[in-house]
Model the fold of this input.
Amino acid sequence: MKEFIDKVLEKYPAKTFKNRKEHIIIKKANEVQKITANTRTIPGMITNRGCCYAGCKGVVLGPIKDMIHIVHGPIGCSYYTWGARRNKAKAEPGGQNYIEYCFSTDMQESDIIFGGEKKLRRAIKEAVEIFHPRAITISATCPVGLIGDDINAVASEAEKLYGIQVLAFNCEGYKGVSQSAGHHIANNNLMRNVIGTGTKVPTEKHSINILGEYNIGGDGWEISRVLKKIGYDIVCVMTGDGSYEQIKNAHTASLNIVQCHRSINYIAEMMEIKYGIPWIKVNFIGVTGTVQTLRDIALFFGEAELIEKTEKIIAEEIAEIEGEMHYYKSRLEGKTAFLYVGGSRSHHYQSILKDLGIETIVSGYEFAHRDDYEGREVIPDIKLDADSKNIEHLTVEKDEEKYRMILSRAKYEELAKVIPLAKYDGLIKDLDEDTVVIDDYNHYESEQLIKKLKPDMFFSGIKDKYVVQKMGVTSKQLHSYDYSGPYAGFRGAVIFAREVTSGVHTPAWRFVTPPWKVEPLLEGKVVGGDE
Ligand code: CFM
Ligand code: HCA
Done:
């Protein structure tokens, strides 16, 4: 495999070769392996990454249903973060839900030349007068930063004028390496100005925040269904089907569970320091993952009755899906997969694929950081990365008024031996020997690896799905779930298994000739890169 990867990379110009080599490793058991991650993509590469604005407005803010999210920028950027990510939300009783709307200043050439602040002020006024929201966000796209519109000044002026919170986000697309820079800008602002501002008093015993769960395809609803059935009180989901009111009261939960480590781990850490809320890493993708997660949560709270109830519900849920899962496994066992998603799903989905007897042979993230690959113990090594000069490193202190001692030190240490308290080991340690790991993968590398390894299925996003499908390999979008879902939890696992089975076994593949039957490997010249 190593020789083949070297040959693929040798096609690149020299500097690109050197760069890409550091982003690809082959898993070796019993070795501590390092990968280069979260560095800027070389211009000319057809990367699958999105921009900083996509991470801020599209990913973190977009799903918060009862705030109006105004995009200050051209309509294309606004449209891109509107329907595409499949944010799903239902209004709370008596609450507001703006999730179906796209609010944009629709910047034109003249605004770029003469400045767009006036237009932004008008947009806020219009939004307030028509919708009467409780809060507004303003997200900046690339031109706003380039021409220097002061969105922060406009936001504070609007706060005074309308008496509601108006938050400004300088998340211009070019601001960081990728979406993950945008997550950070959005989360820092929520941490500083929203979380902890609610007036709710912590009363519920088994109260949880679900962090890093964005309700794509209804995943958050399936996760909440199971947690509520066990008896947990869900204070806030950040940010899937999220609500401003709930985020304000997030400090009242007794446990933070972290699904997507990449987009939110630092918020979990800050909430622990500021409010005393411990956090654990969870995974609701796949039956094994969900069961493990439910057991970990029950152990955290520790009561015999809760542990017993958890087991009862696990048994009930499994009984409901067992027969179907067994059938799909019999159709999928022994198949191979490529798994390339943004910053956390490439790890979470390993678990469900394993449940179904599918082997992941190539796996990678678009933009995750080294800790998502190698585990949190490398965080001290990566404090200064390519994003550090653009993104504020927020430091928080204990909030003397709102801090609660949820676990004693001794109890914390005892529990840390059995559940992943503030712990995440990353993707690489979980992989089988010889799995190829690729960071910031591109179309050329994917294509070569598909021709060489001929996987049975390919999991990725819209940017490569159809290229791969035309190569004769069933290709599923793990970002949008091809407009299906949920895939999380027990009921979601069956939907996923059913769709993968029909994708792999559809007779349509008989009508396609895969390129490896007619084209030699590594043919042609690679264009782009540094030379
Ligand atoms: Fe986290 Fe996400 Fe992901 Fe992500 Fe994303 Fe997404 Fe994703 Mo698309 S927050 S890192 S920036 S799990 S939008 S819901 S599917 S790339 S793997
Ligand atoms: C984004 C959003 C995205 C894109 C999906 C894709 C999503 O990065 O801006 O490329 O298919 O999940 O909607 O990741």
Summary: The two ends are 27 Å apart (CA to CA). Residues 50, 54, 58, 84-85, 179, 342, 461-463, 477, 479-480 surround 3-hydroxy-3-carboxy-adipic acid (ligand 2) (CB under 6 Å). The mean pLDDT is 95.
